[in-house]
Design brief:
Layout: E1 13-16, E2 19-22, H1 28-41, E3 44-46, H2 56-64, E4 67-68, H3 71-77, E5 83-87, E6 93-99, E7 102-109, H4 123-126, E8 138-140, E9 148-150, H5 151-155, E10 159-160, H6 163-166, E11 172-176, H7 178-190, E12 194-197, E13 201-204, E14 208-210, E15 214-217, E16 240-243, E17 249-251, E18 256-264, H8 274-282, E19 287-291, E20 297-304, E21 308-313, E22 319-326, E23 329-334, E24 341-343, E25 346-347, E26 365-375, E27 380-382, E28 385-387, E29 389-398, E30 402-404, E31 407-409, E32 412-413, E33 416-417, E34 423-429, E35 434-437, E36 440-442, E37 446-452, E38 457-461, E39 464-466, E40 471-477, E41 479-483, E42 486-496, E43 503-506, E44 509-520, E45 527-529, E46 554-557, E47 561-563, E48 570-574, E49 581-583, E50 590-595, E51 600-601, E52 611-612, E53 619-620, E54 626-631, E55 636-642
Parallel strand pairs: 2-3, 4-5, 10-12, 11-13, 12-15, 13-16, 14-17, 15-18, 16-18, 17-19, 18-20, 19-21, 20-22, 21-23, 22-24, 22-25, 23-26, 24-27, 25-28, 26-29, 27-30, 28-31, 29-34, 30-35, 31-36, 34-37, 35-38, 36-39, 37-40, 38-41, 39-42, 40-42, 41-43, 42-44, 43-45, 46-48, 47-49, 48-50, 52-55
Antiparallel strand pairs: 1-2, 5-6, 6-7, 8-9, 32-33, 50-54, 51-53, 54-55
Helix pairs in contact: 1-2
Length: about 650
């Protein structure tokens, strides 16, 4: 039992159950009346030391007389009415009164032990030796089936703190916590895994690797902004990991890091002014967390001041959720051969926003908020957001990656993005089957940018872009299907720079575009613009396409048998060779052939490629003539002609 275990006054006598506690600051003349009172009520006293450095037992002896080895010795040394003490084997002192030669028991004084034998010595409770301390205190959980245990066993269930292995100073933010956290991790690893729980500020000035199945958990449910209307002093909050730029926390298999404010050591927040903020952002450095194992997870974190918040390379199934941050680059996942899940993350200028000195330039970050690179097999990103990043999200050399309901916003002037070169979402390299579903890109130079290998495909479904200073979407390479969504408030909606890309555009709402909904910077005959696009604010009689000469029909040289591409409805037939068969027909397909010269088309029946012409006779075209055909699944039928 220690003084700190009870709300006791060190300057007074306090009743504890059947005994009293004598405060350590009390002098002998203050203690004497309390001890004399014991004679009247038979209560116990728990030993402590007086302000003069005397043991209570010494004071007791001064009050009641010397201590003797037996009652006989005490009676022999005293007269009628005098008191004396006899030392008991359990460490207590029995007080007797000489009553005409007989020893009358008065009470016991507890010195180093309770007098009922519950503990051998009070120091056992403060001891960390085996079998002592919390091992002496019982514990039983409530509820049916609960069994008796001791507090030691309960406290050693698989949850520890850095302070358990380094003392209180490891949580002060200036003493290195590396050795303590490593020791805690090693201890839990020996148990098969567990959780390191902390509420202090922990300086990480060297690399830490969490062993497999060991988690590092702070007190925060969701740390967030303290700048809006406040001082911005993140340093004042508990539950911090302060990581040096040259250090990182690495996770093993099935580790979890959650519930922390994570600040680069040396980041002095709040910034005093724009000059300090400019220098502070330029000094972002290091990587806060490095994933070193499969099935690791990072949750409920606020990460400030690093070059990268979280980096994973070559590991499967990393899970990242509810992570916010202000770093040069946010989340970087590479060479993931099984699905990683990134959800509800938010990268934003936490350290420079909402200040009197804030400018658009101070809200920008030069890196990428979400980067996925090299394989990225079936990675899934949903409901993530970024603001002010040069690239909101990138997919580079990844397979079958899906982005759902993510947004990338940026700085703007007069409702138009002003971060030169910025792009909301990018698909590049050998990426194939990338899907952007329900995405939003605002105030970028360009909302979406596709430059994937020839034959690879990006699907944009119900995506939006607005307030772009240049293009809503750019097709630089690869095939793109744009269906649904809205592209507005920009010079162009979709702009195509590739001569070979196959681009399909339909059911898109184009609005308030200062130049045209669709533009071509290169000749591209394989762009297919559907009939269900909405050009509601396009002037009557105006074409939705800029540079229409760069969007020709697919040319096909006339021959006895011509084979149409599987996609497309309008074809430019060059040459003068007669045509008897047309391949590429299927049920319901309708095509129009535009002839550049005089060509004879032969009437015929009996096969998929034959052409049944009006009146059952051949048709000889003129230059600029047309022939419209429809296939019924057995052969072509003439629908109309223009000679």
């Amino acid at each position: 039992m220690s003084f700190q275990d009870y709300p006791l006054d060190p300057n007074a006598v306090t009743t504890i159950g059947d005994g009293i506690f004598i405060g350590p600051n009390m002098a002998r003349d203050q203690v004497r009346p309390a001890l004399q009172q014991l004679a009247a009520d038979g209560r116990e006293v728990y030993d402590y030391v007086t302000a003069q450095g005397e043991s209570v037992i010494a004071v007791a002896e001064a009050v009641v007389g010397p201590t003797y080895s037996s009652t006989a010795a005490g009676l022999a040394a005293t007269t009628n009415g005098q008191s004396f003490a006899v030392a008991n084997v359990d460490g207590t002192v029995a007080i007797y009164r000489n009553n005409t030669g007989s020893a009358t028991f008065q009470r016991s004084l507890g010195t180093t032990a309770y007098n009922d034998g519950r503990f051998s010595q009070k120091t056992d409770l403060a001891s960390t030796a085996t079998g002592k301390g919390s091992a002496l205190i019982g514990f039983k959980q409530s509820g049916t089936g609960a069994v008796a245990r001791d507090v030691l066993a309960k406290m050693r269930e698989i949850e520890v703190s850095p302070e358990d292995f380094g003392g209180p100073s490891v949580g002060n933010g200036t003493t290195s916590a590396v050795a303590a956290i490593n020791a805690a991790g090693a201890y839990l690893a020996g148990l098969g895994g567990g959780t390191i729980v902390g509420k202090g500020k922990y300086l990480i000035d060297a690399n830490i690797r969490l062993p497999n199945n060991v988690s590092l958990v702070g007190p925060w449910e969701q740390p967030g902004e303290v700048l809006h209307g406040e001082t911005g002093d993140y340093d004042s909050f508990a539950g911090q990991l302060r990581i040096s730029s040259g250090a990182t926390i690495e996770t093993g298999d099935a580790c979890c890091v959650r519930g922390w404010i994570v600040i680069r050591q040396g980041l002095d927040l709040p910034f005093a002014d724009a000059t300090a903020a400019t220098a502070g952002v330029a000094a972002f450095a290091g990587t806060a967390f490095t994933n070193g194992g499969a099935d690791a997870s990072f949750r409920n974190l606020l990460i400030l001041g690093f070059n990268k918040a979280i980096y994973s390379n070559g590991l499967e199934r990393v899970r990242i959720a509810y992570v916010s941050g202000d770093c040069t680059n946010g989340i970087d996942v590479r060479a993931c051969y099984d699905i990683s899940y990134i959800n509800y993350c938010h990268f934003w200028p936490w350290t420079t926003v909402h200040q009197t000195w804030t400018t658009n330039a101070l809200l920008r970050r030069s890196g990428t908020a979400y980067n996925f690179q090299d394989v990225g097999d079936w990675n899934m990103v949903s409901h993530c957001f970024s603001y002010g990043y040069f690239r909101g999200g990138k997919t580079v050399n990844c397979d079958n990656m899906t982005w759902i309901n993510c947004g990338a916003d940026n700085t703007g002037t007069a409702g138009v993005g002003d971060y030169a070169g910025s792009i909301g979402f990018v698909a590049e390299g050998s990426s194939k089957s990338t899907r952007w579903i329900g995405m939003q890109a605002a105030a970028q130079e360009s909302g979406y940018y596709v430059d994937v290998s020839a034959g690879n495909h990006v699907e944009m479904s119900s995506c939006q872009a607005w307030a772009a200073s240049d293009r809503g979407a750019i097709v630089q390479g690869g095939d793109v299907n744009i269906e649904g969504g809205e592209l507005r408030d920009a010079p162009f909606g979709v702009y195509i720079n590739s001569t070979t890309s196959r681009v399909f555009i339909d059911k898109v709402r184009f609005r308030n575009l200062s130049t045209k909904p669709i533009g071509f910077n290169a000749v591209n005959a394989t762009t297919f613009i559907g009939s269900l696009n909405d050009y509601s604010d396009l002037a009557a009689g105006a074409s939705p396409v800029a540079n229409p000469a760069n969007w020709p029909m697919v040319p096909i040289a006339s021959a006895s048998t011509i084979d149409l591409p599987a996609v497309g409805s309008d074809f430019n037939i060059t040459g003068t060779t007669g045509i008897a068969d047309i391949g590429g027909g299927y049920k319901g397909r309708q095509v129009t052939l535009f002839f550049a010269g005089v060509v004879t088309v032969t009437h015929g029946t009996g096969s998929m490629s034959k052409i049944r012409l009006s009146g059952g006779v051949n048709f000889t075209t003129t230059a600029t003539g047309t022939l419209t055909l429809r296939h019924n699944g057995s052969q072509w039928f003439e629908v109309g002609r223009c000679a």
